[in-house]
Design goal:
It contains six helices and nine strands, in the order E-H-H-H-E-E-E-E-H-E-H-E-H-E-E. With about 180 residues, it is of the alpha+beta class. The protein has one domain: 3-Layer(aba) Sandwich (Aminopeptidase), CATH 3.40.630.30. A four-stranded antiparallel β-sheet has the order 1-4-5-6, with helices on both faces. The longest helix has 15 residues. The protein binds coenzyme A. Coenzyme A (COA) binds next to strand 6, helix 5 and helix 6.
Length: about 180
């Protein structure tokens, strides 16, 4: 059965395999092999760090900001890591313009099987449970799989804006209103 869980060492082997396949969430960088080997040797600090709250981050505009409250969840079945979703429970000026409430990724070997739709469905349920029902979400214009996923969950396009992320293309900005 598909479910979202907090990062868990029981899924470490398939998570590591996913990193080696080139798994990433949204526009996050893919870790190089040396970093993957470090995670393999000492997974606890890495797994615990995934959901470490507080601190700061510097997005591509170079301006450091406080990290908002968030959680990264893993999409798993009975035995394997399939993908991950990042849920941000507040927006700051950067997320409100470029990032959004949600980012997600499916490991390459599991793509094109409907898992992005599944992870977004489960992620929206978690947002709903927190009382957050207006979800701002963005993706690159050329990321057809991602915008099809967003639109399949009722995403309405608000506008398109130049992307400040690595690809530097056009970013589509969507709103999903979660209904009861
Ligand atoms: C975007 C991503 C999450 C899609 O995952 P996925 O599990 O392959 O997507 P799904 O199988 O649920 O498919 C969703 C829709 O996209 C379509 N799709 C999937 N891959 C596609 C591709 N390469 N080209 C065109 N359409 C594609 C599917 O056909 C489906 O549309 P449909 O319902 O009209 O048939 C995955 O490609 C990924 O992890 N990419 C890297 C990270 C990323 O870009 N995250 C999103 C950031 S906003």
């Amino acid at each position: 059965m598909l479910r979202l869980i907090l990062p868990d060492t029981r899924y470490l082997a398939s998570y590591i395999a996913a990193l080696r396949e080139g798994f990433r969430i949204g526009v996050r960088d893919i870790p190089p092999e040396e970093e993957i080997q470090k995670i393999e040797k000492d997974p606890f600090d890495h797994l615990e760090g995934i959901n470490r709250q507080g601190g700061f981050f510097t997005p591509p505009d170079g301006i450091e900001r406080k990290r908002v409250p968030f959680n990264d969840y893993w999409l798993v079945d009975d035995k394997d890591f399939i993908g991950a979703i990042s849920l941000r429970y507040e927006l700051n000026d950067f997320l409100e313009t470029h990032g959004g409430h949600i980012g997600y990724g499916i490991r390459p070997s599991m793509m094109r099987k409907g898992y992005a739709k599944a992870i977004l469905t489960l992620g929206l349920q978690k947002m709903r449970a927190r009382g957050i029902t207006s979800i701002f979400i963005t993706c690159d214009e050329d990321n057809v799989a991602s915008w099809k996923t967003i639109e399949s969950k009722g995403g309405i396009i608000m506008d398109k804006a130049p992307s400040i992320f690595c690809g530097g293309s056009i970013r589509r900005r969507y709103l999903i209103e979660i209904k009861d």
